[in-house]
Amino acid sequence: xxxKDKVALVTGASRGIGRAVALKLASCGASVVVNYASNKExxxxxxxxxEAMGSTGQVRQFDVxxxxxxxxxxSSIARELGGLHxxxxxxxxxxxxxxxxMKEEDWDEVLTVNLKxxxxxxxIAARVMMKQRFGRIIxxxxxxxxxxxxxxxxxxxSKSGIIGFTKSVAKELGPRGITVNAVSxxxxxxxxxxxxxxxxxxxYLKGIALGRFGSPEDVAGVVAFLASxxxxxxxxxxxxxxxxxxx
Length: 247
What we know:
The protein is α/β, with parallel strands linked by helices. About 50% of the residues lie in helices and about 15% in strands. It contains 9 helices and 7 strands.
């Protein structure tokens, strides 16, 4: 896969899956914009790794749920770097609680960041890509958005919404040479899964056919494929990366 002369924006790229995706795209030659919301130090570490491998990039701080800031930043990226060819919508949060105990603000915050944030970035990026008549948009959903999970009705709703969003936008943007796909990770070895108790981890592992949690790199490889020319005839799809926990 060769992304030379391509500009990529990865949201929520300071850690976990976003970090792995940023590094993978950079290793294939892309100039990668590392977006973060709050942890500048981690974002700069990712940029340092990108530069150490001989690639280029920059760090951009903005909250994807802030539509005005997103418009300013994405437009600035395209203007300064000569376009925007790959958008990976990875930024997301969780605020877990059983429905009857869930605070309204926790419902609103998760839907605002995870779903409206994706709307904000995709809308502005699409305008740039339509002028280029080329673009690759990859959205991070989740197995939880497909099969549900107790205590995660807000997270599940946001991730399920991403699937419908992906399929609709793929139909809108396809005639302009832009593909829009989603990847649906299962239980990946990130900060979120590491915080689970050993008993909960064991319970989840019993349902995973491959008998292990995935790695961020497992997801990054699929994202890079969807951004490549090899995937130029794939759009509106949801690619599951879940080790067989949900098929």
